[in-house]
Amino acid sequence: MKSLHDSHFDSVEVVSSRLSHVDYIASRQLATAVYLAFNLEKPILVEGPAGVGKTELAKSMASILEVPLIRLQCYEGLDESKALYEWKYGKQLLYTQLLKDKLAELMQGAVGLAASIERLHSHDDLFFSEHFLEPRPLYQALHQERGCVLLIDEVDKSDPEFEAFLLEVLSDFQVSVPELGTIAAKVKPLVFLTSNNTREMSDALKRRCLHLHIPFPEPAVERAILERRVPGLSQALNRELVAFVQAVRAIDLKKQPSVSETIDWAKTLLLLNAEHLQLDLVRDTLNVFLKFEQDIASASEQLPALLAQARKDAELPHASNA
User: Fold this and answer.
1) pLDDT in tens, 224-253
2) Which of 43, 101, 110, 313 gives 209 a disulfide partner, CB atoms 3.0 to 4.6 angstroms apart?
3) 291: which residues sit within 8 A by CB, 6+ positions away?
4) Pairing verdict, β 85-87 and 133-135
């Protein structure tokens, strides 16, 4: 079976090409960061607005490398036990009852108190063995025989205390379990940490990672993404749609439409058999890519101007049916 480091990337261009083969359109900067992270065996801290492809990058790399993707979704209150392991207390309780039922049998042949205690202790050790352990994402990642892609998603939502715990994992790819000792990775995973910048990451965490910022894409890149992700979309509608979304991102919104929402809107327009953007159609489908009522209201007020700007930028003038 193929392991993580059986794969080789001889150049940044190879990374870009392999990502393209799994329908991930990568900029030169992004491909360079992945190339360096893989060959230097360093984690990447991927920052940028929601929906620009941070999580999808990790999924794409797992597909390319043919190894499992293990995902740790971060949230406020996440602690070491939820990320690393938990003890199966119910199973330990059943084992305790079994020991009680078999106590006389276990003590057979033990002479004196010291020998009896020693005999019991030999069975007590089983309580804190891997047999009674429930592995969580970080523990699973360290135990992958072939390696894996480890995605620590939305790390900015976790608490600073959990971020401090991650430092040991990211520094040495090992963790200390009091009952079991130090557990080191069988194969170092390729690690992606994503952040939507809801809070600033510590300098200590940033030092251990390469940094990559994924912004909203340029129009040409976003058109290329739609070509891959929404087959059947005409070139004319592709250009006009992307120009409109780019114009919408330029106005004051609570949440700008993401690339994933652009894809959803393109699929919506294809489903509605649209050939070009028309005023009524756009107004009826704004909720596909704008998720706050105040944003929908703001875009609706400026809709004629936004459509005119999109047609101009797309170089596809069409008469309005307003």
Assistant:
1) 999 999 999 999 999 999 999 999 999 999
2) 43
3) 255, 261
4) antiparallel
